[in-house]
Structure formats: structure tokens, C-alpha cells
Specification:
88 residues; mainly beta; five-stranded antiparallel beta sheet
Length: 88
């Protein structure tokens, strides 16, 4: 978005972003370590910076992470048909 300007320069700048993490890399449920996690994640966020004065700012980035199910969990999960990482 365009910055909101004040008399002495910018007052606030903000942006919205939407990330999608796809399961790339090899995945083998019979191995302990995998380069891929075999699940999709969505991570939208809002970020903003506010100028308190020309030398001081306050910034934030607020995320919400949603993880979908892995339908082939590793052998360490026993007889589980699927697993799902928590939301953050």
C-alpha cells in the first residue's frame, strides 16, 4: 500500500502477503529425515511500520500459519493414517 504521509515524512507503511508452502523434495515415510514434509502450509500475514518521530519507529508482523494433513506419516507415528502439524 502507499505510505500514509505526515508533515515530517511517512507516518505508517503496511503490507499484506500470502505465502503458500508446497511439499517439494523427496519424501519417504520409512526414513527418519526427509527434505520434504509432505504437507501444504498457508501463511498469510500483515506487516506495518509506524514512525513515532523521524528517528524512532515501531513495527509489527502478524502471521497465521495453517498446516494441512500429511497423509503418509513416518513409521515413527505407528498405525496413524495421517498427521497434522498445529496452527500458529
Amino acid at each position: 500500500f502507499d505510505p500514509v504521509m505526515g508533515a515530517a515524512g511517512p507516518k505508517i507503511v503496511q503490507r499484506i502477503e500470502f505465502q503458500v508452502n508446497l511439499p517439494t523434495g523427496e519424501y519417504d515415510r520409512n526414513k527418519d529425515i526427509n527434505p520434504g514434509n509432505n504437507a501444504v502450509s498457508l501463511d498469510p500475514y500483515w506487516a506495518a511500520t509506524y514512525w513515532l518521530n523521524p528517528k524512532w519507529t515501531a513495527s509489527t508482523r502478524i502471521h497465521y500459519l495453517y498446516n494441512f494433513k500429511n497423509n503418509e506419516p513416518g513409521y515413527a507415528f505407528g498405525a496413524a493414517d495421517d498427521i497434522q502439524a498445529g496452527q500458529a
